[in-house]
Design brief:
The protein is of the alpha+beta class. Strand 12 and strand 13 form a beta hairpin. Helix 7 crosses helix 8 and helix 8 crosses helix 9. The longest helix has 27 residues. The radius of gyration is 24 Å and the shape is elongated. The N and C termini lie far apart (60 Å). The model has no long low-confidence stretch (mean pLDDT 90).
């Protein structure tokens, strides 16, 4: 049973009178989890707001404990953003201790929000707090070797961490995920003729083109050498093709200079693939990479969709 101490420290209930809280608690599910048990997962839809009463939870990028983003202490809640956005969760919430929680089902949560202005205010404060925290966390992750020093894009380490989560979420929700693998045509010959410093100018310009000519929802990264990847969540192949063609044309139109000398026109070849049912992230990349190879065989400066 809930005691007075547990009730008064619940952030969501701050500002409510003593007689307004019991009906809410009676409609909620009171449950326990053991250490290591998953409360919320990107692999499953979240169906309620989870309030921690006793113990400790951690928000994690993966199931491994070393990937935690933040801890949740008694009185705090989790699951708000996925309920508001009506999307699958984007992170794991795992019990780091044996814990006791309340779960308020989604339909009941919206009903009490409509009835109690204090609940709506408290929920808004909580969501704002986590959004600010997540923004700071993203900045911290960028500083922790998840970006490529030359181009400013995400790097392979970021991809290895994020792609399995993205694939799992899209497989579970049956939403379309597309990926483009691309690289610079004849880049070795370019470096041999103009030097690696001029080659770095090309890679830097390509990185900036990917930043400015992809959508906010897309994620561009340097896969290695002159090869780059663009992840396009919730995107159909036709939509992905439009983004890829915009990138191809933008690169072809670059006006590059090195040491006051104009550099020749640079082109890119691209392979585009859509995530298939049961496919892993690694398999998706392999398909896109094979299609990139085929685009080069077909004459370069083009997009191959298979």
């Amino acid at each position: 049973m809930l005691d007075h101490k547990n009730i008064t420290r619940i952030h969501l209930f701050q500002g409510l009178s003593a007689h307004e809280i019991p009906p809410i608690i009676q409609a909620a599910r009171h449950y326990h989890v053991t250490e290591g048990e998953v409360v919320i997962s990107p692999d499953h839809p979240n169906e309620g707001l989870h309030i921690l009463l006793e113990g400790q939870l951690s928000v994690q990028l993966s199931r491994e404990t070393q990937s935690w983003i933040r801890h949740i202490i008694p009185g705090e809640s989790c699951g708000e953003i996925s309920l508001i956005q009506k999307t699958y969760p984007t992170a794991y919430v795992v019990a780091t201790q044996s814990s006791t929680l309340l779960e308020i089902p989604e339909n009941i949560l919206w009903a009490i929000i409509e009835k109690h202005a204090f609940i709506a205010r408290n929920l808004l404060r909580t969501v704002t707090k986590w959004l600010v925290h997540n923004t700071q966390d993203l900045a911290q992750h960028k500083a922790q070797s998840q970006t490529d020093a030359l181009t400013g894009l995400y790097n392979r380490r970021w991809l290895d961490e994020m792609l399995p989560r993205m694939v799992g979420r899209h497989q579970a929700s049956q939403q379309s995920l597309c990926v483009v693998m691309l690289d610079v045509d004849h880049f070795k010959k370019f470096n041999d003729r103009y030097g690696h410093a001029a080659g770095d100018v090309v890679l830097t310009a390509l990185g900036q083109t990917l930043i400015h000519h992809t959508r906010p929802s897309d994620a561009a990264l340097r896969y290695g050498g002159e090869e780059f990847t663009v992840l396009m969540p919730e995107t159909s192949p036709d939509e992905a093709l439009q983004v890829a063609e915009r990138l191809r044309l933008s690169v072809e139109q670059l006006n590059l200079h090195f040491e006051h000398t104009s550099l020749p026109t640079v082109t890119i070849s691209m392979g585009l693939a859509q995530l298939q049912s049961g496919q892993t992230g690694e398999q998706l990349l392999q398909v896109a990479d094979q299609r990139l190879y085929t685009a080069k065989e077909q004459g370069r400066n083009r997009i191959n969709m298979g």
